[in-house]
Fold these 2 entries.
Entry 1:
Amino acid sequence: MKILAIETSCDETAAAVVENGTKIISNVIASSAEMHKKYGGIVPEIAAREQLRCVIPVLTEACPSLTTVDAIAVAIGPGLVGSLLIGVETAKTIAFATGKPIIPVDHVLAHMYANFLDSNRENSSRAQSRDNLIGFPAISLVVSGGHTELYLMKSVKELTWLGGTLDDAAGECFDKTARLLGFENRGGVAIEEAAKKCKVPSAKCKVKLPRPMLDDSFNFSFSGLKTAVLREWKKYEQHDEALINGFAYEIQEAITDVLVKKTLRAAQKHQAKSILLSGGVAANSRLREKFSILHSQFSIHVPPAQLCTDNAVAIASYAFFRGEPTDWHEITAVPDVSVEF
Ligand code: KG4
Ligand code: ZN
């Protein structure tokens, strides 16, 4: 079964065709990230106008003929309403015009299904059995710009929400502290790059940040960490490159320590066989490195970095494994669609 998926929840316009939830036939992503740089954050109006301009070219590049696909999937939320509407209304129009089934998808849940894809197009037999490589029960951590959520996965279909952030998401913490350090947008990537340049232990920067909410719950809280960074930052009069790199290092250590410890505790409690990472922050190489150390206890799954950030491939995979075809009249953009159940 081939599914054409559309994802326009934030500043990306993405379309992809995926076969049987695992085999990528096409994957096209246009981003307006550069256009938001000078504003220090995503401007929803600019994102939506750019998506309106890009959606048909991206769609036709990913799927030159609609006769080749069996269903349409679309991200209905969470995300920016103006952006979501472009993908949702485009997908509904295709469903109406072709009569093909349409599957609405929660984009945060979809992130985890990037783990079920095999980007190696040549090796389809391995791709078909990819889901078997993930042992259940599994613990799945989704870490994106707006979400930090932990799920128990008893099978490819059965998800239980265990906890999530009470305030800022991990990605938001990377982005906001990056801005304080003087970086423009793409905060997570900027912090990762600066942290790599930090010589540890740094003579210049001995900043030590808290590891918030390491209690027994599976909830997270990152807003206090952001405040702690601000407080420490103000103690220094000169903010040179060595200091910035030192801060970046410690911010990355603090965020990744919390993510690893909470996920590990959930995996131990539920006797998980596998741990799945996904969402934009899962592209972070330090986080990937810290999880990889746990490989003797659990099988660790992380999508390639370009499939961690928003993409339509994961939307198609989710639709195949867990989605439900819905009458297109009933589908609408839901900016705050629930990720807790
Ligand atoms: O999943 P995503 O593309 O969009 C949302 O659904 O939010 O995630 C975007 C988030 C941003 O906060 C971005 O700074 C973060 O993922 N991110 C990273 C890295 N790449 C992207 N955070 C840390 N390290 C990275 N390499
Ligand atoms: Zn996302």
Entry 2:
Amino acid sequence: MAVRIVQSADPSETEALGAELAAGLSAGDVVLVHGELGAGKTTLVRGAARALGVTDPVTSPTFSIGHRYRGSRVTVSHLDLYRLQSLHAEDPELLEDYLGAQRIAFVEWPEAGASELAHARVRVTLAHAGGDRRRIEVREPALAGFTPSAPTGAPR
Ligand code: ADP
Ligand code: MG
């Protein structure tokens, strides 16, 4: 298990971390993004999506559980399961539209889909650390393809 903890001082640093993370992902990967409201989950996903070639605006899903964006090589799915108590009460195929071999999926508030998302490649946890600072923990159960390195922007 690789664990890396970095500090972000502003949204651009969080986006840059997302971009760096994206560089190590492959089609079929799922990234779980934990953290309180306003911690920067969507900001991180935005940076990752940009790095994967998404040019459309990346915004929080509000009327559905997720968005799908066309990236340069894969479809980028962005899910937010905040309003789902448990997927089991919902259509079991709900996630199928977003996951899969040709996609890279980022899931905010993934708790509701815990069992379906158990195979996630990376787990990111963001936490408020005063003002614009955020503590960001990146856990990667499976090491392959991801090289932990210094974050963009010096750690503080
Ligand atoms: P979440 O998806 O976790 O609710 P968002 O990414 O939508 O969070 O919002 C994070 C908010 O916090 C944005 O308004 C962003 O500009 C602000 N912010 C301030 N500092 C940071 C930081 N270091 N990283 C990410 N977002 C930050
Ligand atoms: Mg969000």
